[in-house]
Amino acid sequence: MSPFFQVFNSLIKRELRLAIRHGADSWMVVMFFVLVVVLFPLGVGPEPGILTRISAGVIWVAALLSAMLSMDRLFQTDYEDGSLDLLVLTPQPLELLVLAKTIAHWLTTGLPLIIVSPLLALLLNMEASGYGVLLAALALGTPTLSLIGAIGAALILGARRSGVLLSLLILPLFIPTLIFGVSAVDAALTDLPSEPQLLILSGLLLAGLALCPWASAAALRQAVE
Amino acid sequence: MAEFTGQDLTCIRGERVVFSKLAFSIDEGEVLYLQGPNGSGKSTLLRLMAGLLRPVSGELLWGGENTRDDPEIFRGRLHYVGHQDAVKTALTVEENLTFWAEMSGAEPEKRLVRDALKTFSLTHLAALPARFLSAGQRKRLNLARICASAAPLWLLDEPANSLDTDSVVALRHAIAAHQDKGGMVAVATHEELVSDSNILDISEFTSSNRGAL
Amino acid sequence: MFNYFANPTRYLRLISKLQPIAMVVTILTIGAGLYYALFKSPPDYQQSETVRMMYVHVPAAWMAMFCYVGLACSSAVALIWRHMVADIVAKSTAPIGACFTFLALATGSLWGKPMWGTWWVWDARLTSVLILFFLYLGYMVLYNAFDEPTRGARAAAILSIVGVINVPIIKFSVDWWNTLHQPASVVKMDGPAVHPSMLTPLLLMAVGYTALYFWILFIRTRAELNANKVRALRIRQAEG
Q1: Per-residue pLDDT averaged across A45-73, rounded?
Q2: Interface of B with A in 20-79 (CB under 8 A)
Q3: Which domain, by its residues, includes A92?
Q4: Which member of A18, A87, A88 has the closest CB to residue B90?
């Protein structure tokens, strides 16, 4: 087994183990996601027509907020207990380690969001034709959110009031994912092809995979300095 | 022969010159003591040696080659112990130790991990989640980490802090064993850990240049 | 050349020569531009007199973009070569760019009232400028979020580079979003075809804004360099 793969593997394994033993973190993100969505019918009224119309947008905005909320712990604990110094000092490319941490983070926070999203679509009275595309769009979009969020999480290490700061930094960068994610579902709901949007989402994901780990690694290096 | 040296090192933290024109040299089997009053830059120098900090000027050489030429190979040659213990409380003692051994890239050697636990008398705690450990036990776990995978250069920042007498003895043995294998150590500490060693007094490189910007 | 200007004294010497030039160019071009814009150019056949808002609004939107690219470029130089002056240029550019962005938003909103009958319309261009404004705010907040100034400088520099890569993607996605949702009846902001009599004041204003940017930049960078000197003296004082 190549050393890269082994290191990648053990880092993901460690992150998953930590997430499972801490447990509550993943649950809180999912609960937040559900709660935000539930607030909308209470805010705009329970009229099924309106809910159907806004369902895709509401689910995506809630997913964005939950992804952002879960982000600030990504490097924070490692930064506080000194593990980050040691991760930077391992003889592996830091970009690879960042990618592993981001994937593990997505598995523990992004994936649960995707799993509960059909339930929320049901609550918002979404039409049946939208479900498949919603799942596909979230599956392509939420990893991009994690990748971009990792940059923000690395930049705010050691800052004052890091939570609010993080949202100011990364929410504007989430906008393209939001637009194409919602647009894909809306297209499916109006019987238009949603392939273009899904392809653009895949493109964003690939670009994110290629570029984001470099930016996050650069941010981490200056954070331990 | 590999030899770890630094030349002409100047470091600025924030807007303050910590030290300037600092030079040091560690040969195989040697221990370098960093001395100086609190805040004189011992920790900074150790972080700089590890490559976490970049000096404003000067360079670090390993066997005559600049460590910045291939930082990943250089990072594979060192172990760093900082003020924080890098212990994950949700993982067991053994999981903590094995993880860092795996991160060094090589297949972790069971024997080394076991010996490291034994050296710092942690064997009976191996299966315990680290959240139950005392401050001293966490420090020992962090020190066991550097024994659990091989690296020729140890950079130790106050390794004897919060250790009891027995553990200091264990640390002394570990350093001696490391020296016997040709290992190098740079250490900032108030304890006497090795009898014969080179001393680097950082305050020599700070006072004369104070405030020069 | 980068290394040459890494020395603050040389940079200060250079800007002390350039600053009066920038000031004169600013006053002349903005003065002439406003004269042409307000008195000489014809009213638009569709928008009548309100089109004159364009001469303030459009160059401001250009400058918002120009400043962000400048911010990212000087951040990259500061990050890669640890170039002190580039860092100060980046830091001083951000608030100027944010002001131009705000000016573009405010005039766009004022322009929108007579054109669309409401203060704010989710027009693609205005929306992009609004997001750009948030990017500027993020940069400035991050720069000042750390106790140690060098940390903030480096983190913000990385953010601005990430941001500048994202700007075209955001622009593209907002345009896409807008074409999906825009009702056909709304007049687009880039609507009127530009007549030569409109081009003169527009270009004059653009040159004037650019000169204004450099003028303010020179003043701000000088102030920052002086502030650095004060800080260095204080540190020396603390060390006794």
Answers
A1: 91
A2: 50-54, 72-73, 75-76, 78
A3: 3-224
A4: A18
